[in-house]
Amino acid sequence: MDFSHSPKVAALRERLLAFVDEHIAPNDHLHHEQQAAMTDRWQPVPITEALKPKAREAGLWNLFLPESGHGAGLTNLEYAPLAEIMGRYPWSSEVFNCSAPDTGNMETLERYATEEHKERWLKPLLAGEIRSCFAMTEPDVASSDATNIQTRIVRDGDHYVINGRKWWSSGAGDPRCAIFIVMGKTDPEAEKHKQQSMILVPRDTPGVTIKRMLPVFGFDDAPHGHAEILFENVRVPAGNILLGEGRGFEIAQGRLGPGRIHHCMRAIGLAERALEMMCRRSLERRPFGKPLADQGVIIDRIAQSRILIDQCRLLTLHAAWRMDTVGNKVARTEIAEIKVAAPDMACQVIDWAIQAHGAAGVTEDFGLAYMYKIARTLRIVDGPDEVHKFQLGRMELNKYRAPRNARPGESV
Amino acid sequence: MDFSHSPKVAALRERLLAFVDEHIAPNDHLHHEQQAAMTDRWQPVPITEALKPKAREAGLWNLFLPESGHGAGLTNLEYAPLAEIMGRYPWSSEVFNCSAPDTGNMETLERYATEEHKERWLKPLLAGEIRSCFAMTEPDVASSDATNIQTRIVRDGDHYVINGRKWWSSGAGDPRCAIFIVMGKTDPEAEKHKQQSMILVPRDTPGVTIKRMLPVFGFDDAPHGHAEILFENVRVPAGNILLGEGRGFEIAQGRLGPGRIHHCMRAIGLAERALEMMCRRSLERRPFGKPLADQGVIIDRIAQSRILIDQCRLLTLHAAWRMDTVGNKVARTEIAEIKVAAPDMACQVIDWAIQAHGAAGVTEDFGLAYMYKIARTLRIVDGPDEVHKFQLGRMELNKYRAPRNARPGESV
Amino acid sequence: MDFSHSPKVAALRERLLAFVDEHIAPNDHLHHEQQAAMTDRWQPVPITEALKPKAREAGLWNLFLPESGHGAGLTNLEYAPLAEIMGRYPWSSEVFNCSAPDTGNMETLERYATEEHKERWLKPLLAGEIRSCFAMTEPDVASSDATNIQTRIVRDGDHYVINGRKWWSSGAGDPRCAIFIVMGKTDPEAEKHKQQSMILVPRDTPGVTIKRMLPVFGFDDAPHGHAEILFENVRVPAGNILLGEGRGFEIAQGRLGPGRIHHCMRAIGLAERALEMMCRRSLERRPFGKPLADQGVIIDRIAQSRILIDQCRLLTLHAAWRMDTVGNKVARTEIAEIKVAAPDMACQVIDWAIQAHGAAGVTEDFGLAYMYKIARTLRIVDGPDEVHKFQLGRMELNKYRAPRNARPGESV
Amino acid sequence: MDFSHSPKVAALRERLLAFVDEHIAPNDHLHHEQQAAMTDRWQPVPITEALKPKAREAGLWNLFLPESGHGAGLTNLEYAPLAEIMGRYPWSSEVFNCSAPDTGNMETLERYATEEHKERWLKPLLAGEIRSCFAMTEPDVASSDATNIQTRIVRDGDHYVINGRKWWSSGAGDPRCAIFIVMGKTDPEAEKHKQQSMILVPRDTPGVTIKRMLPVFGFDDAPHGHAEILFENVRVPAGNILLGEGRGFEIAQGRLGPGRIHHCMRAIGLAERALEMMCRRSLERRPFGKPLADQGVIIDRIAQSRILIDQCRLLTLHAAWRMDTVGNKVARTEIAEIKVAAPDMACQVIDWAIQAHGAAGVTEDFGLAYMYKIARTLRIVDGPDEVHKFQLGRMELNKYRAPRNARPGESV
C-alpha cells in the first residue's frame, strides 16, 4: 500500500501543475465570462477548445484509461493525484479529455465494444472530436436501484427497438455529442440482475428527442448539460448491444467504480481550492477592524477543513489502491466509503468558504456557489449516500453473522 | 407571553390559508413556468400580477405594517403566523404586497419620511403600483459592519451628491422599481455610529447605473433580482435625506429587526413545505421494494425536522413578542437568536428533502434547490451568522462581568 | 398558549430561587464532599436531610403533583419553571420532595391506589419519610418496547406471585426505599397492550433480592442508586395490583408523560448552569495571554448554547401546555419531541462546558462530568431517542397518508 | 509512503493478535471484576500481572521504543498497527509494558538521561519492575500553554529545590510508581521557551505529597490513577535535571509527538471494538420484533463508523510516516491533525455504540461508558482540540501569507 508517486506520475503531476498554473488558473475567469455570455448556450466554450491542442501537445491527454494502450497507462492510484488537480477547476477536465461521462464511456467502449464500434466511436472520442452521453437514470423510478429501470430494449429481427424516458443524461447538451450508451431491459422476466442490457444509440437515430435540458441549482452546465430524453421506437442494429443481452448490470458495475473514484478525487481538488479561497479571503477581509484570519471561528474551520480533506484524500487513495490490487468488485466497500465521504467533505468545506465570502460567496464572482452545486449533486449522482451507507453497513454487519466470528476491524 | 391567535389573527389566517389553497398552491407550477419562459427576464410574472387584485379584494394586502393605519395594524406576534404561511411559496409574498425589501422600505417611509415623500413614494408602494430598493451592502467592504460603508453623501447647496458602489440591491431588477433608499456616509469624521445617513434616490436620477444583475446559486431571481449599482455624482434635493444627517445607523437598526423576523417566519414556512414534500415523496417513492417512508433514516430525519421546525417557530414567536413588548432595541438578543437559528434550520430540513427526492431534488421540478438557495442565502443576508453569534455570545458573557453576579439563565 | 407566569407561580419561583441562592448553591460543594466521603455509600447525605425541613417550612414541598390537593396544585406548565430551577443542582429535587422516581410513584398512587394503600405508602412518601422505586426495565430484553417485558405476575388464590429480573430500578439503593411498583405480565396471551399489570411490592417481601447496584459512567449515584433486582416467587396480596389486571400499559402511559417533561425541564436547568459555568470559566481562564472569553470559538459556542437552550425551553413549555389542555395522550407527539430535544441539547451544552474547563472538566471539581452523565443517560431513559423519533416520524408521515391531504405544518 | 506491513511487523501483528485472542479478550471481564472488587484500590490487578511474563516470553514487550536497542526497534509507522490492537482493551497496554506515561518516560530517559539515571530508572522501567509519572499539568493555570506553568525549580548549591502543585499526574496512584519527571520553571525571566526545565524526582523524596486521586467521569482508573501532587521544598541533586536548564520545552516537544500518536492509534483500536460491539448487539437485540441490525438508523451509523475509523487510521498512519521521515518537529501539522481527529472520531463511534446498547451502554456491563471516558478525555489531554486546531489553522493560513503564493494543498 504505497501511496508515493512513481517517477512517471511525479513527472506527469509536475507537467499538469505547470499547465494549470499557466493555462487554466489564469483563464478561469475568462472561461466563466465566455460561458455566461453565450446566448446560444449549447456551443463549445472558446477557451476550452483553445487549450485542448496545448494539453495534447503537453502529453496531458486521455490520462484516465487504465490497462489500455490508448491512455497514459496509469493505474487508479496513479491517476488519482492527477484527477485531483483537474478537479480544482471543474471545466479543466475536458481540456485534458478526461471529463465525465466521456471517460466512462470510452472505458466501456474499450472493454466491451466491437472493433468496428471502437473505430467509429472510441477513436474520435479519444481524439476529442466527438462527445458522448450515458443514459441510465429515469425520472419515473428510483434509479439508484437499477432493477427499477423501465426503458425497454426489444429485439426485432436484426434490430433492437428502444422505448423509454431518461433524464440526467449528462453531456447530451453538447452539439458534438454523437453517441449514447443506453441502459434498458431486454428481458424483464429474467433473473434480477440479468434483465438489463446496454446498447449504443447514435444521437441522430430517429425517435431520439431531447425534451429539455435540466437546470441544477439554477445552473444549466452549458454546453455540457443534463438532458431529459425521450426514446420512441428507436431502432438500432442488433450488433449495437454491448457484450450481449443481460450483461448491462455487469457493465454498469465495472464502469461505476472508476467513475466514482474520479468524482471523489476531483471533489478533493475542489475542496482544496475552496480552502485556498477561504484562506485568501480571510487574510484580506477586515470586518470589525481585524482580518477574518484572526477570528477564532474562521481559524477553527480552516483547521477542520485541512483535517477533513487530508483524511478523505488518503481514504480515496486507499480505495484506488484496492481497486488496482483486488479489483473493482472486491473493492466495492472501499468505493462505497469514498462515495459517501468525499462529497460530504467537499460540501462542508465549500459551505464554510461561502460563509467566509459573505454575499460574494453565493453569487458567481468567486464560483463558490457553483462549486457547492457540484459537491451537493455528487451526494446523489451514482446513487445517493443513503444507498451506499446501507450497503456498507450491511457488509460490516455481515462480518459478525458468520459462524466463525470475526475480530474487530483490523489495521489496513 | 401568549402565543395564541387572537380572533382577528385567526380570521386572517383562515382567509390567507384559503387563498393559498385556492390561488397560490395550484399556480405554483405555472408561476415557475411563466418565469422560466420569459426571455425578457425583467418583466413582471403574469400570474403574480393577476392574483394581486384578488388578494387585495380578500383583505390580504399590506398585512405587515405595525402601528400604522395603512396596514392591517398587526403586531409582530400577530403578523408572524401570516408571514409563515406566505413563506411556503416564496413568490406569494408579493401577491399580498408583503415582500422584501418593499415592506422594510414602506415601514421606513411611514416612520421617517416627510408627508410629501409619503405621498410620492409610500402611497404607490402601498398600492403595489411601484417597487423599491434598499441599497446598503457594498462589494468592496465587509458590510456586515455598517461602519465600513464607503459610499459618500456630500452636501452641496440645496442638494446632496452621492458617489459609491452598492450590490445586493434586491428588487432593483423590477422595471417598476422607482425609488432607492441609499445608505452612505455624510460625515466620515463623526462618531462611529453617526457617520451614516439614508437618502431617497429616485431610480431615474442621472448617475444611477445598474451595472449587472447578480446570479445567486445560478438563479437570477427575476424579475426582482439583485443588482450591482454605481452611483456617480448622483444629485438629489437635500430634503431627500431621511430624519437628518447622521441618523442612518439609527434607521437601519429600527428597520432590521422586523426585516429579520419576517425572513425567519418565512423560512419556517419554507421548511414546513420542504418537510411536507419530503413526507409525500417518501410515501410514493419505492427504491429497493419498499417506500422510502418505511426506511429508518428517512423517518428519523422527518422526526428531527418536526422538532427543529417547532423549536424554531416558538423561538421566533418569542422574539416577536419581545419586540412588541420591550422594543426592537432591547429585543436584539432574541432577534439575533432567530436570525441564526431559522436559516440554519431551514437549510437542514430542505437539504434532507432534496436528498429524499434524489436527482429531482437538485433540479427545478420540485423547486427544492431554489428553496435551498433562499435558506442558504439567509445565513448571510442582514449579517452572517458569525456576526450575530459573536454579539450574542458577548451579551451572554456580559451577564457575568457585572459586579453583582447573575444567576444562570432563567425560565422565560 | 400563554407561557407567562401566573402570580402564584411567580411567587413560588421567587421563593424557590431565594432558597436555591441561600441553601442549595452554597452547599453544593458540601453535598458533593459529604457524598464522596461516605464509606457506607447507601446512607442519606446529611446536607440533603438538613435542608428538607427548611424547604417544607418555606412552602417548597411536593410542588409537582397536578390535580391533587396533596401537592401545590400546579399544572404542568406552572410546574415547569420550578423544575427547571431544581434541575440546576441535581441533588436539590429531593430537598423539595420532587425527585424521580418518587414523583411518578406518588402520582401513580394518587391516581390508582386504594385508600388503604394511599394511607400506607402515599402518605409517608408525601411526607418524605420513605422512598420508592419503579421496577420496569429488564436486562434481558429491549424494554423500550414494553411488550417485551418478561417478568411474570401470576394469580395464586388471594395473592399474586412475581418472578423476574429488573434493572435500572432507580432509588432502590436508599435504605428508606420501602415500596416498589413492579411492572410485569399477568396474561401473555392477551392483546398486546393488555398483557401488563402493575403491582405494589413492599421492599421487605421475601424473594426480593437486590443483586447489585449499577454504576453509571463510573458513578454510583448513592444513596439513591440504580439496582438490579431479582424477584423470586415474591408473593403479595391480590389487592396490591393497581387498577386491575391488564391495566399496566395504560398506567405506564399516564405516568411517563409527566416523568418525561420533568426530566426535560431539569435538563434545561442543568444546561443553564453548564452555560453559566462556561461563561465564568471563560472570563477567568487565560491560556495564551487572553481570556477564553475573547476567543471566537468559545464565544460562538456560548451563543449557540443560548439559542439551543432557549429553543428547547420554549418547546418544553409548549409540550406542558399541550398536556394541560389536550391531555397526555394527545400530547404524545409534543412529549416525544422534547424527550429527544432536551437531553441532546443538554449533552451538547455540557460537553462544550467541559471543553472550556480543560482537565478540570472531566474530573469532579466542577461536577461537569456528572452533569454530562445525567444528560447522556437521559437519551436512553424512558426509551432511547431512536424510538421516540421513529414514532414521531411516523406520526408526521401519517398526516399525508389520509385520503384528504393535509396542509404543511401550521403555525401553533 | 508505504503503509503496508513489513514482514517483521506482520509477524509481530500475528503474534500480538494471537495473544489478544488467547489472553486478553477472554480475560477482559475478569480484569474488570478484579479491579472493581479491590477494596484497596491502589494495588496491581492480578490478571494484568499474571499476563506480563507471558507477554514478555512471547516477545511482545517494549514494542514502542523507536531508534533504540531496548525496544523492538520499530518506527512509528511500524508500531502503529500494534498500538491499535492494544487499544482495543485499554488495560492490555500495560501487559506489554507499552502503557502511558511509562512509554513516554522511558523514551525521555533513553534520549536525555545520564547513564547513571538510565541504570537506576530506565532499566527497571524496561523490565516492568517500577512505574513512573509525568508531572506537567497544573490546576491553577491553563497548562495547554506550557509558558503558563508556575512550578519553580530553583538551584541551591548542588541541588534543585522544587515548589509547585501538579495534577493529572497519571500513574502516580500505582504503589510501584518510583520516579516522577517534573516540568517547572528554572528561569521565569528567560526567553519564553527557555524558561522551563525537566527534572527527575524520586517519589519518596521528602516534600512530595499526593493530595488526592482525581476521579474522571466517576472512574478512579485504579491502580494507575491521576494524582494531584504537592511539591514543597523538594530537594534533588542538580544532576537530576534533564539535558540542562531551559531545555524542558524542547524535551516536551520531542516527547509529545510519539505520545499523541500512540493515544490516537489506541483510540482507533478502541473505536473498532466499539463498532464490533455495536454490530454484535444489533444482531442480537430485537425491540419491536426485528433485530436492531435491520433498522436503517443503526445500519447508517455502522456505515458511518466504518468510514470515520478508516479515514482516521489512514491519517494516523500518514502522520506516523511523516514523523519517521521528516521528524517530529516538521510533522507537527500532521500530529495536530490526528490529535484532533482520532478522539473526536472515537467519541462519536462509542457514543453510537452506547446508544445501541440502551441502558446497558451507560453501565459497566459492556465497558462502553469507560471507553467513552477514555476517548472524551483524550480531547483534552496533551492540549485541548481548540489549541491544536488554532495552530493548524494558522499554519494553513501562513501558506498564503508568503510573498510567493502557494498553490492549493497538493496531493500527498
UniProtKB/TrEMBL annotation, chains A, B, C, D:
Belongs to the acyl-CoA dehydrogenase family. The keyword Cell wall biogenesis/degradation does not apply. GO terms for cellular component: cytoplasm. It comes from the Bacteria. Keywords: FAD, Flavoprotein, Oxidoreductase. Homodimer. Residues 246-394 form the Acyl-CoA dehydrogenase/oxidase C-terminal domain. One of its GO terms (biological process) is fatty acid beta-oxidation using acyl-CoA dehydrogenase. GO terms for molecular function: acyl-CoA dehydrogenase activity; flavin adenine dinucleotide binding. This is Acyl-CoA dehydrogenase. Gene3D superfamilies: Acyl-CoA dehydrogenase/oxidase, N-terminal domain, Butyryl-CoA Dehydrogenase, subunit A, domain 2, Butyryl-CoA Dehydrogenase, subunit A, domain 3. Its cofactor is FAD. SUPFAM superfamilies: Acyl-CoA dehydrogenase C-terminal domain-like, Acyl-CoA dehydrogenase NM domain-like. Residues 10-129 form the Acyl-CoA dehydrogenase/oxidase N-terminal domain. Residues 133-234 form the Acyl-CoA oxidase/dehydrogenase middle domain. It holds the Pfam family Acyl-CoA_dh_1.
